[in-house]
């Protein structure tokens, strides 16, 4: 397989003679099968060839240990080759793990690990909460345990009292400024204390000592952009590049369906109903599937991307990363980065909050201004309660003036 990247016999002989010589064809096949660009794979193989020569003088038949890797990396003069070398070696470690010795890291055991694992199982198995919610609850529980270890060393959780709870909450809230975050923090704190009582780690109902932090959900306007700005950002995308075709389809789908970030990343090819012009959204936040309309422009852009610009891969997800190897987007920041980049390129000034949810807010605001029924907007966005959609009514100032009652004593 090395012949696909190198043609000179002398180079091929050198690549096949080092400590990784017998595995170099297997490594090259991995880069080819996973869709790495020819130039990128050639660079990685070249770095591994140099490392293979370096490691050949260190017991070629034995597994390569971390000390050999460190000495090779430090032998490189500048930072850029070192980064490329480490990346290439990590690839080799995944492809041919038998050629490398197992790392034995001397890590300090986590004193809160068993309790947090028990708490996580309780949240998943007993409470039935989603993974994202469990992550936030466990993170706050770790902070609570760390605070307790500092303020009550060598004492078990059974010794915690209401006074401790008030001091803890005061400490947590001083670190926060956002009303929503403060409210969720106190709510998560009560959840952890209820778990302590449920598991007999503390006999008191400590949750009742946690004060309730008011969070007026309708007190602020949702972040949004003018619909003209969304349209300008979509029209400014250069579709001569495959990434531009993908980003245009992505933005149009967000702007016309209001999909959430996770819903967009989870969208699969079989979820697109081309003949009926619909998109099936699975595994939503409300734990139920819903169907959203696929408008003509968004459908045409999506078809163009799937037919001509989507990487050839076995993955069923619609939107894929072009960074080799092509793969689905795993985290929300990838989609947010694409949206923010496209909006900024069109000259739109953005606040700190900018991503798929900003486009979702903008769509809801536009539909309210078009006097679409509020229940129709709630169904499109996948809201379980129409009260969640009510926040967008506040931006419809012309409609609100129509329902204003006359002021007593004013002019008729």
Question: Could you please describe the fold and organization of this structure?
Answer:
This protein is mainly α and 412 residues long. It folds into three domains: 2-99; 113-209; 227-400, hpI Integrase, Chain A, CATH 1.10.443.10. Helix content is 54%, strand content 3%. It is built from 18 helices and five strands. The chain has helices at 9-15, 24-33, 38-56, 66-75, 79-95, 113-126, 131-151, 162-174, 179-198, 227-235, 242-257, 261-266, 296-309, 332-345, 356-369, 374-381, 386-389, 397-402; strands at residues 272-273, 278-281, 290-293, 320-321, 327-328. It has a three-stranded antiparallel beta sheet with strand order 1-2-3. Strand 2 (278-281) and strand 3 (290-293) form a beta hairpin. The protein is flat. The termini are far apart.
**Which segments are poorly predicted (pLDDT under 50) over 5 or more consecutive residues?**
none
β content, as a range?
Answer: under 5%
Please give the CATH class of the largest domain: Mainly Alpha
The biggest beta sheet, please? 3 strands, antiparallel
Assigned CATH architecture of the largest domain: Orthogonal Bundle
Share of helical residues? 40-55%
- Count of alpha/pi helices: 18
Gyration radius from CA atoms, angstroms: 28 Å
Element-by-element helix/strand order = HHHHHHHHHHHHEEEHEEHHHHH
Q: How far is the first residue's CA from the last residue's CA?
A: 87 Å
